[in-house]
Design brief:
Elements lengths: L1 H25 L1 H21 L2 H4 L2 H5 L6 H4 L1 H13 L3 H10 L8 H4 L36
Helix pairs in contact: 1-2, 2-6, 6-7
């Protein structure tokens, strides 16, 4: 926990140091232009990844074997847009890494295997065999509301 807090406190100083180093290397005007470009790019990415893209997860699941990272793609785009909107080179590099098209594990590999059938021919522990009879109540037509 302490390491996380130290990294969290050092992050702004690392961003400032990277911006000063960039300004020293390419100039202040180009650095400001880079910052404006990345902020506008981040805002545009966040505006275009709306909640409707998250609702496509259901349709993606119906297609069969799909990568778990593909399901989380709208969330990745939103987080990358947020990282682009934060001024600094470190956050830009993290956003670019987040936008790489990684192939993750497929959902078929993540589903636990089903138990094998029992040797005596029964299907398993979740099935209860039995008989039923449907019993409907008879309703007087005069007692209906319509």
């Amino acid at each position: 926990m302490r390491a996380f807090l130290i990294v969290l406190l050092l992050y702004p100083f690392a961003e400032i140091f990277s911006l000063v180093s960039l300004a020293d290397a390419i100039g202040g005007g180009w650095t400001i232009a880079w910052l404006l470009f990345t902020v506008l790019l981040g805002v545009a990415m966040m505006r275009n990844s709306k909640l409707a893209s998250l609702l496509t997860i259901g349709s993606v699941l119906k297609q069969g074997q799909v990568s778990l990272l593909a399901l989380l793609w709208p969330l990745r785009v939103m987080l990358a847009g947020l990282l682009f909107a934060i001024p600094g080179l470190i956050s830009d590099v993290l956003a670019l890494l987040l936008m790489l098209p990684w192939r993750g594990p497929t959902l078929a590999n993540m589903v636990p295997p089903s138990p094998p059938p029992a040797a005596d021919g029964s299907a398993g522990g979740d099935i209860i065999e039995g008989e039923y009879q449907r019993v409907d109540k008879t309703v007087d037509p005069k007692s209906r509301l319509h």
